[in-house]
C-alpha cells in the first residue's frame, strides 16, 4: 500500500465534513472518490494535497508522514475542477511553473525546462499550442494544460478534482478514455473525485463511495455494482425502484408476490426491497405483484420501452419484446414482478 | 430579413439621441466647463502672469510639498492596500469583515474629521502631544501631519480596487502554485500580483491624484504656513482669499494638470497593453 489515509476527521465550524475516513491506494492504482455534493470527497482530496488541514488522523505515503509536510514539499500533482491555470501566462509558462519554482540548486537549466515543456505538451496532445494563453484555449485543452502542469513536477501521486466536471458530454467521454490511456502509460497512483457514477465505474480500478463525510463502501466497480453494501450505494450506482415488503427468510413478499432476495440476510419483518428497472417482468392485467399503469410506449428500437406508473406515482421504465408491447396501450393495467430484490431496512 | 429584424430590435433614434445629449450636457456642465475655466482663468492675464505665479518661491515650495506628500502617501497605501486585499481575499481569520468595513471608513467620514483626529492625538493638548513635546517631536503644523492626514484620507483607494477583483478571482491559482512547489513570495510575485496589476495601477493612480488634491484634512493640520506647510490646494486657497484670482487659478491649473497626467498615464498603459487586457478579459 503506497498511500494510507487513516481515521481522517475534518469539520467546517460545527459541520463535520469528514468523519473518520480510512482508505488506501496501491502503487499505480486508479482510485475514484464517488459521492453526491457535500459528501466530503473534494475535502478529502484537498487534505491529501495539503490544501486543507485535517483535525485528526494520518496520511502517509510510503511510510512518510504527508500531513507534516507543507503543500509545496509534498510533490502531489493536483488538477483543479476549474483548471486554475495562471491566466497571465502562456500554456508553456504554466507547464514550466513548477520546474522554475524549484530551489536554485535543484532547478534544471532553462533549455532542459523548455525541452521538458515540449515533451509534456506532446504528451497531452497540445503540440504547438504552448504560446497560447488560457483564454485562447478550449475547456478540454485547458484541462490538459492543467494536467501537463501537474505532471511537470514529477508528482508522486496525482489528484484530480472533478476533472471533467466543466466540460460538455462529448469532450468528457473522449477525455475520459484518453485519461485512462495516459494512466496506463505513466503508471502514476491517481485519485480522482467525481459525482458521476458512470465515470467512476468506467475509469477506476477501485471506487470509494462517500456519504455525509463517511466511507460507505470501497471496492472494484464490479463489487460495487453487483454487491452493494447499502441502499445508498445501490441507489447511487443506477436507477432504483423502492418497494415496501415483508421479509420471510430469503423471500420478500411484495404485494402478495414472493420474490427471492439476493445479497445479505435481513431479519424477518417489514423492510424495503430495492430493484433495478431491468429486473422486472411485466404481465398484462392484474395479478400478484406490483400494480401499475402504462403511461407511454415506445417501440422504436430492438425492444419496446414501457413507462409504468406505480400507485405511489413513481415511474419504472421496463423493456419488453415488440410482440408483447403490441398488445398494450397507454393507461392499460399491468403487473410488475421483480425477478429478485435486495432488501435493506 | 436580417436587417429588418435588427431594425425592429433597435431602440428608437430619439431615445439614443436624448440619452447621449443628456449625458454630454451633464458632463459638460459639471466636469468639462469647470476644468476649462481653471485653465482659461489661469491664462487670462497672459502667459507672463501665469509664469510669475507659478514661479513664485511659495508656489514652487507648495508644488514640491504636494509631490512629496503624494510620493509618501501613495506608496504607503499601495503596500497597505496589497497586504489588506491579500489577507482579506486569500485567508480566513477572525474580524475579517470588520477590517473590510474599516477600510471604507475614510471614504465615508468627512476629511475634516480625519484631520481633527490627528490634532486630537498629536496636538499640543492632544493625547500624545505633551509626551511628544517633551521628546522634542512636533507633528501638528509640520510636514509629518500633512503626510499622516493625506495617507488616512487616501487609504481605501488601492485596497478598494483590489478586493473585489481578488475576491472574484478566488484563491485557486494560489493553491495551484503551492501544489507546484512555489513558496509564499514566489506565489505573490508571479501569480497574485500579475493577476491584479491593472487594478493595482488604477488604484495607485487614483490614490496619487487624490493625495495631491486633498484639502479638508490637510487644512486642519497644516497651519497654512506659506512656503512651509502649504500644499498646492492650500496655497490656492491662500491666494484666492488674498483676491489674487489670477495666481490662484495658475497654481490650480498646475494641480489639475498633475491629475490629468495621472489619467493620461492610465490611458496610455491601456493602449500599450490592449492585447494583453483583451486576452485576460475573455475568461
How does this model look, in words?
The complex is a heterodimer of chains A (345) and B (283). Helix content of chain A is 25%, strand content 35%. Chain A is built from nine helices and 20 strands. The longest helix of chain A is centred in the middle third of the chain and has 18 residues, at 169-186. The model of chain A has no long low-confidence stretch (mean pLDDT 92). With 283 residues, chain B is mainly alpha-helical. In chain B, helix 3 (47-55) packs across helix 14. The chains are: A alpha+beta (345), B mainly alpha (283). The A-B interface holds A 49-51, 70-78, 80, 82, 84-89, 97-98, 101-102, 133-136, 146, 149-150, 152-153 and B 172-173, 175-183, 186, 190-191, 194-195, 276, 279-283.
Features:
heterodimer, A: 345 residues, alpha+beta, 5-stranded antiparallel beta sheet, 9 helices, 25% helix, B: 283 residues, mainly alpha, 15 helices
Please tell me what the overall shape of chain B is. Answer: globular
**What topology, given as strand order, has the largest sheet of chain A?**
6-7-8-3-9-10
Order of helices and strands of chain A: EEEHEEEHHHEHEHEEHHEEEEEEEEHEE
Tally the helices of chain B: what do you get? Answer: 15
Amino acid at each position: 500500500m503506497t498511500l494510507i489515509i487513516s481515521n481522517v476527521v475534518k469539520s467546517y465550524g460545527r459541520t463535520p465534513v469528514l468523519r473518520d475516513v480510512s482508505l488506501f491506494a496501491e502503487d499505480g492504482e486508479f482510485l475514484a472518490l464517488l459521492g453526491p455534493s457535500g459528501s466530503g470527497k473534494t475535502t478529502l482530496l484537498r487534505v491529501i494535497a495539503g490544501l486543507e488541514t485535517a483535525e485528526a488522523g494520518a496520511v502517509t505515503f510510503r511510510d512518510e508522514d504527508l500531513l507534516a509536510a507543507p503543500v509545496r514539499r509534498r510533490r502531489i500533482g493536483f488538477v483543479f475542477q476549474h483548471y486554475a491555470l495562471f491566466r497571465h501566462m502562456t500554456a508553456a509558462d504554466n507547464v514550466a511553473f513548477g520546474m522554475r519554482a524549484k530551489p536554485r540548486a535543484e532547478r534544471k537549466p532553462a533549455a532542459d525546462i523548455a525541452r521538458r515543456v515540449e515533451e509534456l505538451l506532446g504528451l497531452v496532445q497540445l503540440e504547438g499550442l504552448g504560446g497560447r494563453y488560457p483564454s485562447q484555449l478550449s475547456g478540454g485543452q485547458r484541462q490538459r494544460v492543467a494536467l501537463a502542469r501537474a505532471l511537470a513536477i514529477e508528482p508522486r501521486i496525482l489528484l484530480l478534482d472533478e476533472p471533467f466536471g466543466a466540460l460538455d458530454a462529448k469532450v468528457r467521454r473522449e477525455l475520459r478514455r484518453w485519461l485512462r490511456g495516459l494512466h496506463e502509460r505513466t503508471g502514476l497512483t491517481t485519485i480522482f473525485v467525481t459525482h458521476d457514477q458512470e465515470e467512476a465505474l468506467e475509469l477506476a480500478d477501485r471506487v470509494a463511495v462517500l456519504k455525509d463525510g463517511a466511507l460507505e463502501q470501497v471496492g472494484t466497480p464490479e463489487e460495487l455494482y453487483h454487491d452493494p453494501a447499502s441502499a445508498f450505494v445501490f441507489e447511487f450506482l443506477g436507477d432504483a425502484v423502492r418497494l415496501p415488503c415483508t421479509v420471510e427468510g430469503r423471500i420478500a413478499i411484495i404485494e402478495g408476490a414472493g420474490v427471492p432476495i439476493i445479497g445479505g440476510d435481513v431479519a424477518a419483518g417489514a423492510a424495503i426491497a430495492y430493484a433495478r428497472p431491468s429486473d422486472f417482468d411485466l404481465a398484462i392485467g392484474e395479478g400478484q405483484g406490483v400494480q401499475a399503469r402504462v403511461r407511454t410506449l415506445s417501440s422504436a428500437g430492438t425492444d419496446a420501452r414501457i413507462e409504468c406508473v406505480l400507485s405511489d406515482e413513481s415511474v419504472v421504465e421496463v423493456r419488453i419484446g415488440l410482440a408483447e408491447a403490441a398488445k398494450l396501450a397507454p393507461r392499460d393495467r399491468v403487473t410488475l414482478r421483480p425477478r429478485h430484490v435486495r432488501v435493506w431496512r | 430579413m436580417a436587417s429588418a429584424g435588427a431594425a425592429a430590435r433597435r431602440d428608437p433614434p430619439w431615445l439614443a439621441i436624448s440619452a447621449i445629449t443628456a449625458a454630454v450636457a451633464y458632463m459638460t456642465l459639471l466636469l468639462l466647463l469647470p476644468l476649462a475655466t481653471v485653465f482659461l482663468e489661469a491664462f487670462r492675464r497672459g502667459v507672463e502672469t501665469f509664469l510669475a505665479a507659478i514661479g513664485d518661491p511659495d508656489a514652487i515650495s507648495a508644488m514640491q510639498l504636494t509631490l512629496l506628500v503624494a510620493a509618501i502617501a501613495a506608496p504607503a497605501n499601495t503596500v497597505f492596500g496589497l497586504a489588506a486585499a491579500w489577507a482579506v481575499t486569500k485567508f480566513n481569520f477572525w474580524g475579517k469583515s470588520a477590517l473590510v468595513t474599516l477600510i471604507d471608513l475614510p471614504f465615508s467620514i468627512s476629511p475634516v474629521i480625519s484631520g481633527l483626529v490627528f490634532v486630537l492625538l498629536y496636538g499640543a493638548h492632544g493625547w500624545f502631544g505633551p509626551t511628544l513635546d517633551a521628546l522634542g517631536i512636533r507633528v501638528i503644523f509640520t510636514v509629518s501631519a500633512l503626510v499622516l492626514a493625506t495617507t488616512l484620507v487616501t487609504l481605501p483607494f488601492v485596497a478598494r480596487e483590489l478586493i473585489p477583483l481578488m475576491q472574484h478571482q478566488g484563491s485557486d491559482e494560489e493553491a495551484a502554485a503551492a501544489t507546484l512547489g512555489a513558496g509564499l513570495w514566489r506565489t505573490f510575485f508571479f501569480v497574485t500580483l500579475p493577476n491584479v496589476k491593472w487594478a493595482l495601477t488604477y488604484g495607485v493612480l487614483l490614490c496619487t491624484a487624490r493625495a495631491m488634491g486633498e484639502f479638508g484634512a490637510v487644512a486642519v493640520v497644516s497651519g497654512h504656513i506659506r512656503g512651509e506647510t502649504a500644499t498646492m490646494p492650500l496655497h490656492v486657497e491662500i491666494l484666492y482669499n488674498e483676491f489674487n484670482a489670477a495666481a490662484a487659478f495658475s497654481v490650480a491649473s498646475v494641480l489639475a494638470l498633475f491629475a490629468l497626467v495621472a489619467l493620461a498615464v492610465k490611458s496610455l498603459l491601456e493602449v500599450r497593453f490592449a492585447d494583453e487586457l483583451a486576452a485576460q478579459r475573455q475568461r
